[in-house]
Amino acid sequence: MGLLKDKVALITGAGGGIGRGIARCYAREGAAVLIAELDPVTGAEAEAELQQMGARALFVPTNVLRKDSVEAAIQAAVDSFGGLDILINNAFVPSENVLLEDKTDAMLERTLTSTVWASWWAMRAALPHMRARGGGRIINFTSIDVDIGAWQHADYNTGKSGVIGLTRSAAAEWGRFNITCNAIAPTAMGATFHKLAAEIPGFAERSAAARPMGRSGDPELDIGPVAVFLGSEMARFVTGITMHVDGGLHLPGYNSRPAHVPVREY
């Protein structure tokens, strides 16, 4: 308890899923949390929940597709809580699952905006405030899908690859400001998981069995503590890495080829 006492954190997409789980962990560890969320219902619910836990929390409607909205969220954290210590770029806008040849320019543009551009905007806006505090922590999110070239996620894979490059660049250049920048590649039972589990019989069981640890991850219990570690003084000498928090799924990987796609086509 208290690992993040007196720290101010901004978490994008903290209204649900992994972001909400991290927000709960941060609240328990003493951080003030700016909930940068698009959905007004879940954003307000998260704010109320964290406040009931005794944390300082504020929901700010945020659209990561818009630079002005991202920058306004950063400023709101500073205005409301006095500064910014930790930035967590978790939110993104998903696109339709279709093959690479069927992805559109608009899909790629939106995905790149909600991943690379959103992280870029937030990081650059956060920089002067972190420097004013004598340092800071940036946590970005990537995916195992990049490693395996997941089918039907070509735009997502491209965007998350860019996030890795951005993370490493910030780690290299901003270490001189006592700012660390790391990435988490999680798999957990977030909104997408529950949607697929409801739509596809046996999905949850197969997903758990694919991991060496034999279970699927919990946003709060499995992903949140890693985000706490990276945001705390325990990780003061850790920067530029990607942490796979997936129960070992990155070891065997997984076959993402859709069943309807033949092995060979001419």
TrEMBL record:
Pfam families: adh_short_C2 (PF13561). It comes from the Bacteria. GO terms for biological process: fatty acid elongation. One of its GO terms (molecular function) is oxidoreductase activity, acting on the CH-OH group of donors, NAD or NADP as acceptor. CDD domains: SDR_c. Residues 7-187 form the Ketoreductase domain. Belongs to the short-chain dehydrogenases/reductases (SDR) family. PANTHER family: 3-OXOACYL-[ACYL-CARRIER-PROTEIN] REDUCTASE, CHLOROPLASTIC, SHORT-CHAIN DEHYDROGENASES/REDUCTASES FAMILY MEMBER. This is NAD(P)-dependent dehydrogenase (Short-subunit alcohol dehydrogenase family). It comes from Simplicispira metamorpha.
